[in-house]
Amino acid sequence: MTAVTGLGLVTPAGIGTSTNWARILSGKPAAAPAKGLAGMPVEFACQVPGFDGEELLGARQARRMDRYVQFAVAATREAIGDANLDPRGWDGSRVGVVMGTGAGGTGTMETQHHQLTDNGARRVSPLALPMGLPNMAAAQLAIELGATGPNLAVCTACASGATAIGVARDLLRSGAADVVLAGGAEAAVTPFFAAAFARMKALSNRHDDPAAASRPFDTGRDGFVMAEGAGVLVLESEEHARRRDAPIRARLAGYGASADAFHVTAPHPDGEGARRAMRAALADAGLGGADIDHVNAHGTSTPQGDLAEAKIIERVIGRRAAVSSAKGVIGHALGAAGAIEAAYTVLSVEHGLVPPTANLDRLDPGIDLDIVSGAPRRRRVDAAMSNSFGFGGHNAVLVFAAA
């Protein structure tokens, strides 16, 4: 198995893992009117509170990074500290980075496109591409940390963060690295993305009560709430972690991936792709559905998606597992969501706590699962599954086991 030795989180639930965990357990939603979305069809989102990139990185460096890269750097610094790693003393050639994103530096690209159309080509920043490309989180982390091992950027839409963790595990299993920093980052709470998702009718329209808008599995759900943030896990081979007596928070026991090959936005009506990814993750972990104590569901709060996922969880895992979705609190962080929620799943395994699903007032009558709501539930979690599904039919499923 692969050891998880460090976690780093920057999300609408707060900056830092302990702050995040407390907010997720509280079930207090983060959705509110969003800076920069005034005049858009949907003007609310879940944003990272109190994040100051210039304070974190210094003004000069911060101005050379898109917000999504700043999130990634902040989360990675915490994860490395949590793992008791010091980049000054490691063999950088044995350290890899795999970062997922669904959009990359969309804020930078939107701003620079306005410069082009409003003021002409000479006003486009020479840093537009070094800031905005989707590989730049991985690239900047390698530069900052001297990580000269495999360096990859993964894009599988809203499954990107989970896919990155799975790919990182494969790098460790192949022997290509001893340590891999893996996760996802996104900062797509922007006018273009708000308008595009609204035109698709994917977003909640609960304008009168944004805090109640993201309501996974609830009968009144009407779409997801956009979010931003980053989650990073430090993954190590068991041998490397043991050699340095590293603190092991959990183990990544299984990874499964598949494609629906059905539709660019709608889930497969029978959930076939999700089912195959879940079964592949279980097989990789050497477990059966009955062995899973907790499922961290993708649970975006969309009418179709939640119902389809619930039916597949029932078929593959059964009704015994305690199921919850973090998106009622933090919204949907798109390409970062899978990594953020993987970190929450590790914390559930570690602490024996299943967070509540916020805003679940009345369970959809078509869903026959044990959905945790109201308050966190204490229970032994020996194995937990984290689901991530993305536009285009991308599916990535992770299984974590107790250390």
UniProtKB/TrEMBL annotation:
It holds the Pfam family Ketoacyl-synt_C. This is 3-oxoacyl-[acyl-carrier-protein] synthase 2. GO terms for molecular function: 3-oxoacyl-[acyl-carrier-protein] synthase activity. The lineage of its organism: Bacteria, Bacillati, Actinomycetota, Actinomycetes, Streptosporangiales. Involved in the type II fatty acid elongation cycle. Catalyzes the elongation of a wide range of acyl-ACP by the addition of two carbons from malonyl-ACP to an acyl acceptor. Can efficiently catalyze the conversion of palmitoleoyl-ACP (cis-hexadec-9-enoyl-ACP) to cis-vaccenoyl-ACP (cis-octadec-11-enoyl-ACP), an essential step in the thermal regulation of fatty acid composition. InterPro entries: 3-oxoacyl-ACP_synth-2, Beta-ketoacyl_synthase, Ketoacyl_synth_AS, Ketoacyl_synth_C, Ketoacyl_synth_N, PKS_Beta-ketoAc_synthase_dom, Thiolase-like. Gene3D superfamilies: 3.40.47.10. Belongs to the thiolase-like superfamily. Beta-ketoacyl-ACP synthases family. It comes from the Bacteria. The keyword Electron transport does not apply.
